[in-house]
Amino acid sequence: MCRIMLTLTLLGLSIGLVANAFPTQQSGNGKNWVVIVAGSNGWHNYRHQADACHAYQIVHKNGIPDKQIVVMMYDDLATNKQNPTPGVVINRPSGTNVYKGVPKDYTGNAVTPDNFLAVLKGDSASTQLGSGKVLKSGPNDHVFVYISARGAPGLLAFPNDELYAADLMDVIEYMHKNKKYKKLVFYIDACDSGSMMTKLPDDINVYATTATNSYACYYDEKRNTYLGDWYSVNWMENSDVEDLSKETLMRQFKVVRSKTRHVMQFGNKTLANMKVKAFQGNAKARPAPPMTLQPVVEPGLIPSPDVPMAILNRTATAKGHVYQLRSHLKGIEQLKQNMQKVVQCVTGVNRENPKILNVKMDKMQHQCYKDAVSHYKKHCFRWFSPEVRIARPSVPHPKDSPALTQASPALIQPPGLPSSDPAPRSPQL
Ligand SMILES: *[C@@H]1O[C@H](CO)[C@@H](O)[C@H](O)[C@H]1NC(C)=O
Ligand SMILES: *[C@@H]1O[C@H](CO)[C@@H](O)[C@H](O)[C@H]1NC(C)=O
To answer: Which segments of 203-327 are extended strands (E)?
Structure first.
């Protein structure tokens, strides 16, 4: 029974490949704390780290000291060999360098869900590999958490691992019980990010907004990658140009919602009447002077799961490597077929297109779901492996450029599948 349920949810995963009272504005004698996370690595995921760096610049220029800002990002962009401007990371066309001064608290393999949860709990002793910087927040403090990542139902992807909604919810409850904040605000940009917050209570002073469906934007011809995510750049560009001591979270939410569908709010929505500065700035510091941004005429939106394909399409066409494109499409087709076989194998439904493949089920059993995800990842394919996720052709083409043929990690056949099948490809969430 559990096995079937598991598979059903996993399918969702692979297919998803998816005010009355005005609260006080100041945190009193309290402090502002910020946690910023980019949940991916690799050049084709450039946008998540670019978003994170930009978020740091906003809270930094609005007076929150570095010792109250924890940044988690892989940090493989500035020195990446695909970076035509070493040391520079931008988050909009012709944008300024957002990489400057970003604290390196948790980089590389320290960007883990466990470290993230320890940071929120203020549990420095449990952190590994990073600086050990954690929230030291108390009952008078405001905490702002921003995450830009890939996601799937009930989870957010970190570079090598996943953060599960239920674990995040446990830690929020812990923070509430242990008086780790006065008010807590989450902004999450990832596919299916709404599913991270559906269980958020409305009576613990937490407010969250999510992108829910994530779109990449601002393709950069020189860098061959997308510079930002649409939900993210919309709230951040709003924070850049507005006076944050006047702008409210609600207005910021509406600005974002007017540009992207599917944005959602959770928790205590009365908190949205608070000023943005109460979370993205220091109450005692003067807010940063508003910037002027040149409007971007065509943001070039594309659903996040299609990003690797879109990058390949653009670069392959530019370089005349249509062969690469075809082989990637073949890889996706192969993946679909393998997925169908897994479903047939587990459910015993021997039809070409089992209905299950087209529905997303609600997840009931947290541990069961985790086990299933980990089993699937181990035995079917590792979708979050650090290697370039662009599918590699079965027979390398002599003219293939090394950048495009970088091998996928060893992929293991799903159990029960004929071994003659080419290995399935990692989809992008
Ligand atoms: C929501 O927040 C407001 C402002 O802080 C507070 O007055 C209200 O009691 C909260 N609602 C719940 C259900 O806790
Ligand atoms: C690749 O790009 C071309 C032109 O921009 C477009 O017509 C085509 O549909 C794209 N192919 C895929 C598979 O996305």
So the answer is: 206-210, 215-220, 225-229, 264-267, 302-303
